Amino acid sequence: MSERLLIKNGRLLDPSSRRDEIVDVAIADGRIVGLAPHIDASGHHVVDATGALVVPGLVDMHTHAYWGGTLLGVNADKIGPLSGVTTWVDCGSCGAATFEGFFHHVIKLSRLRIIPFVNLSYIGLTQAGNLSIDVGELYDWRFADLRALRRIKAEFGSVIAGVKLRASNNACGANGPIVLPLAREAADILEVPLIIHVGTAPPRIDEVLPYLKEGDILTHIYNPSIGGCVLDERMRLRPSVREAIARGVKMDVGHGGASFSFEIAKAAIDQGLLPDAISTDIHAHNIDGVVIDLPHVMAKFMALGFSLEQVLRLTTCSPADILNRPDLGRIELGGEADLAVFHVRHDPVRLYDSLGASREAATTLECRLTLCKGQVVNTFEDGRTEGRTYS
Ligand SMILES: [Zn+2]
């Protein structure tokens, strides 16, 4: 950005530094060059943020951003600027077979930051969402091809942030016991964390959790599925989940189309299962449904009693720490300008979970401005709609 930008009079809320104050933010050459109560506006393009919230660019720990390459993919560049999400963790949209295309056609060209987890399955999620080809990516366990992952490590080892396994019936059929140790091995080969999704069994969540170690991630933690739920039949938190929390496994919301229940979340939170990241699992089939965007999912947690500071922490520095990226999710003098401006709305809104249950949120967030990698990013029209209906 050659122009100097001044975001004036906003309420800066940055959980990483516990900063919560009215300040001006000056930006030049893509970096934050001033953070002070009154910065002289001359020579700046001024954004009046009076009454608005200025926060670090949001980090969505679970997304699907391989648009054009998978049916589920949405265009991060197009919709990210509408929600303040500057970092998109793509959760296994592609496997070794499709990774190169994702990197060159989407990740490299993006104005936002897309951090990919590679799928254990060679074909990734190319078939997911097409119900007329209802064949999971690991229905044939030979797709768990470690040789192929070793090959892409040579070229993309520095880009790949983790390995993804969907450990549920729709993805693996009966192959859970075979693919779970292979997922562990894949993450160890690539020397990255392993993220495992749980859903309808098999495999059961008790079989899945032993494969996760400190720094790995469990996603869809509040899903209501049979066999994949963190609670047992009597709504008690499973001992295997308590053990996973104790050994440092990170807990990710991954709302998704079918993976978030207010009732499960409330009961699990009351028993000590707090999220380390609030994320959407946004994709083409839920963007127009229950997910919409990350601020919408954050509002659901405020409806559950979380504070604004808490939901911001879980969508900024906390997921950035899981990713081992202490440069992200923070606003710091001298740092790259990566932030969002939100209008805080106080009109009560009814929000729905994956089962149709609802809660009222007193506070919702509406994005006004997004800056990523030092640049203001705006949405655009390309004649496509991001949402899809199942076919
Ligand atoms: Zn997902």
TrEMBL record:
Keywords: Metal-binding, Zinc
InterPro entries: Amidohydro-rel, Deacetylase_Atu3266-like, Metal-dep_hydrolase_composite, Metal_Hydrolase
GO molecular function terms noted in the UniProt entry: deacetylase activity; hydrolase activity, acting on carbon-nitrogen (but not peptide) bonds; metal ion binding
Pfam families: Amidohydro_1
Annotated site (Transition state stabilizer): 166
UniProt KW Metal-binding keyword: yes
Modified residues (N6-carboxylysine): 164
Positions that bind Zn(2+) 2: 164, 197, 220
Positions that bind Zn(2+) 1: 62, 64, 164, 281
Domain Amidohydrolase-related, residue spans: 265-377
PANTHER family, per database record: DIHYDROOROTASE-RELATED, IMIDAZOLONEPROPIONASE AND RELATED AMIDOHYDROLASES
NCBIfam families recorded: PRK09237.1
Name of the protein in its database record: Amidohydrolase/deacetylase family metallohydrolase
